Amino acid sequence: MKISNKKLYEKVADVIILDINEGRLSTGDRLPSIKALSENFGVGQATIRESLNALRAMGYVEIKHGKGTFIVEKEEPRFNVDAVCGDMKDIENLLEVRNIVEVGLARLAAKNRTEQDLSEIEQALRDMEEAIKESKLGETPDLAFHLAIAKASKNDILIQILENVSDIMQNTMKETRRVYLYTKSKSIEKLYNEHKEIYEAIKVQDDTLAQDKMAFHLSEVEKVVLSNINNQE
Prior knowledge:
By secondary structure, the protein is mainly alpha-helical. The protein is built from eleven helices and two strands. The protein has helices at residues 8-21, 34-41, 45-57, 81-84, 88-112, 115-133, 139-153, 156-164, 166-183, 187-203, 207-232, and strands spanning 61-64, 68-71.
């Protein structure tokens, strides 16, 4: 599985974003039709639709069915604590639990995983990639990825610990991914690549590398969550 550094639809989206940032497009402006954009950029209409969906997901445009696509004022994203659990301390506690538990789970998964376990982890990774293509947040396959790693560890108590916090984990993942997506269009792919590196370490059964890759991934998530929340204070 490989995501190219620069897909065609991203190139189109980047041009439109540049036009917005440099004032050639303003809030309220209506973009040309999909057919006209297709002709202007010399790409297929499917590529234009992907670009517009990506721009909508990043908060640059609003698609009004039957009316067209309009530039909207882009709001600065904020990590919504209330959407997760309403308690900042719970989020901090969750981040600590994940750091303590999941680094060990990744190490054990690399040692103990079966081919079936590897297949389940890989499927979650594929679903995550598909979510990126469709400009979705992808918190569901993200959670599935981490739970599949837990399962591969073969430690029932650690599996249960992670399952017990899975609801708040998924809500946190959703908010984190929303911040990633709205802040930088490429950040979601960076997030994907962090997961891919964890998978590859588990695949070759390198337990040290697996725990290191998981530790790095969780530290990056923690930076995004805490820095965004602190900036709101």
